[in-house]
Amino acid sequence: MSDEYQLDTKEYDSLKTASSKIFDVIAKRLNVQTAYITKKGENEMTVLSSLNKYEEIVPEDFTIDYKESHCRLIINKEDNTLNTNNLMSDELTREMKASAQLQVKGYLGVTLKDLNGEVFGTLCVMDRDEKEFDEEDVEFLHSIAAILSHMIELDQTNYNIGFMNVPIIPTTQGVAVTPVQGIIDEKRADKLLNDVLHHGMAQEIDHFIIDLSGLVIHGQEFPRVIEQLVNSLQVMGIHPILTGITPDIAYREMDSMNLSGFQLKTVPNLEAALSYIGFQLKEEQNSP
């Protein structure tokens, strides 16, 4: 998978579980105090998982500006490796803010990628003492990074499987609701179109409420499948109503104007959609 799947750091359960076990192996093999994995964000590096044997040097969830991090050097180097026996005296790292913060010497870091070769972050080790890492040590850490790439793939796959279903909620005769959640890739787009249109026909739906509050948009493009879904429903004589349009979705739609050609009703939430159709949601009240 590629960087289109921007999960929150809390979503990488498999990677965290695997790394917590592998860190012990790494620490013994390289004789270091600390091992950790970072995830690259737009402008920062975040520590996803870490091992600190004797003292906490790199806590989990620690964040540093990408430009100020050693990770930038690792990722940008041709061999995807930063190897120094002393961060504090190395010409490349001694003036860096991260070096001053960490106050460590021995350091070895390699780029961590997903199975498509896209940069995920880094896998690094460090120690208070000076350390000489040889070619075998570097190759060892790269091999561990390759293993962890499979854990990244597993977490990204599990994340999207969670959104593969297209829930369709019947509310009352002739009205149905479908919440659109997560990132809509090509496979999910086909399933969304197929399930909604077939349900609309089979159940003789008059109004289909499409809730976009859980939609995740990657990049700048508004998902074309929403335009296709709206168009197809209208061709079938079904009235689509969009709810849950977030500021991010509105911003992307303003750029693309995919829905501007449709006579389309948009409302802020489900209650407003049902009210527009002619129904009201009422709380049950107990008789005094």
From TrEMBL:
It comes from the Bacteria. CDD domains: STAS_RsbR_RsbS_like (cd07041). Residues 165-277 form the STAS domain. SMART domains: GAF. InterPro entries: Bact_StressResp_Reg, GAF, GAF-like_dom_sf, STAS_dom, STAS_dom_sf. Gene3D superfamilies: 3.30.450.40, STAS domain (3.30.750.24). PANTHER family: RSBT ANTAGONIST PROTEIN RSBS-RELATED. This is RsbT co-antagonist protein RsbR.
